[in-house]
Design goal:
The chain is an alpha/beta fold. 37% of the residues lie in helices and 17% in strands. It is built from twelve helices and nine strands. It has helices at residues 46-52, 81-94, 106-118, 146-151, 153-157, 161-169, 171-182, 190-197, 205-215, 227-234, 281-284, 286-300, and strands at 7-12, 15-22, 29-33, 56-60, 69-70, 100-104, 123-129, 243-248, 269-274. Strand 3 (29-33), helix 1 and strand 4 form a beta-alpha-beta unit. Helix 2 (81-94) packs across helix 3 (106-118) and helix 2 crosses helix 10. The chain starts with 6 loop residues before the first strand and ends with a helix.
């Protein structure tokens, strides 16, 4: 699929959210949530597969990406996990969707995990790349292995003003580099990258990204509007909905982990490590991702 258009604009919470929708409007709803630094085109090959199987597929741009905009200039440009989860819940409310299968990776997977953990009645099933994708901010300053720390260089770069300026000045070169490092076996072409990189021209992109990578380490405060949600996330709540989780064997930012690593965070989960896959799983192996979503859709209906 070359284009995911037309886009629909939906007022939800503090945002005017741009989303792509396909499939029968009365089909079982599925939300596909993209990550950083990607956009809705991560699902360019997943969405039509799900639509053909009868699903109502909704693919929103996250805050700070694409045509999604804040309604009020005074709203903090937060990128914290509580805000991402609140955005997804607000979108479900605005669309009058009481329950859906939620699927995502990176930031989008975090939003899906937040809703699944805190509002399980709204989640018919969860597909989460990198398993339990909710930050434990209280332990964020505990060092990882040197090899794993090396892969997080961009996060530490964003902790200072040189990193903010670098992202603003070189957003395409920097994000292209992350694509290459995180998915070393995925041979994307320049047209594929450019299609997604247009989403990074959003006027709030830099502020939202920088806040995300500072707040998760406790270096900046979160938006007080989401403090109650973050307090609940601090307890690292167990996800009780049916879940299929993945890791990519070639993920350049989050190394694969055995099922036992996050087993205590789920009550019903199937975990799989996929060979030859980097960080952007739905775009690298769309059929595998779509099949997981459909398995949960069928189980719920």
């Amino acid at each position: 699929m070359d284009s995911m258009k037309p886009l629909r604009q939906v007022t939800a919470g503090v945002l005017d959210i741009a989303l792509y929708e396909t499939g029968p409007p009365d089909g079982p709803p599925v939300f596909l949530m993209h990550g950083f630094p990607y956009d809705i085109h991560s699902y360019a090959e997943v969405a039509p597969r799900l639509a053909a199987a009868g699903c109502r597929v909704l693919v929103p741009f996250l805050r700070g990406f694409g045509a999604t905009r804040f309604l009020d200039a005074g709203t903090p440009r937060s990128g914290e996990q509580a805000a991402l989860g609140a955005d997804l819940l607000a979108l479900m409310d605005a669309l009058h969707i009481p329950r859906a299968v939620l699927a995502g990776y990176d930031w989008g997977g975090r939003a899906a995990c937040v809703v699944a953990a805190l509002w399980p009645q709204r989640c018919a099933g969860l597909v989460s790349y990198n398993s339990y994708n909710i930050h434990d901010i209280a332990r964020a300053m505990e060092p990882d292995t040197p090899r794993n720390e090396q892969s997080l260089w961009y996060q530490y770069y964003f902790h200072n003003e040189r990193g903010r300026a670098g992202l603003a000045r070189h957003r395409r070169d920097l994000t292209r580099l992350l694509w290459q490092l995180w998915s070393p076996t995925w041979k994307f072409d320049e047209a594929t990258f450019a299609r997604s990189a247009a989403a990074f021209d959003n006027p709030d992109f830099v502020d939202v990204v920088i806040h995300s990578y500072r707040q998760r380490y406790g270096l900046e405060a979160g938006d007080p509007a989401y403090a109650r949600i973050q307090d609940r996330l601090a307890a690292q709540p167990v996800i009780t909905v049916p879940a299929i989780t993945f890791d990519g064997a070639d993920d350049g930012v989050r190394p694969p982990a055995p099922a036992s690593a996050h087993a205590h965070r789920f009550t019903q989960r199937d975990h799989r490590i996929i060979p030859g896959v980097g960080h952007n799983m739905p775009q690298e192996v769309p059929q595998v991702f779509a099949d997981a979503v459909l398995a949960l859709v069928r189980a719920a209906h």
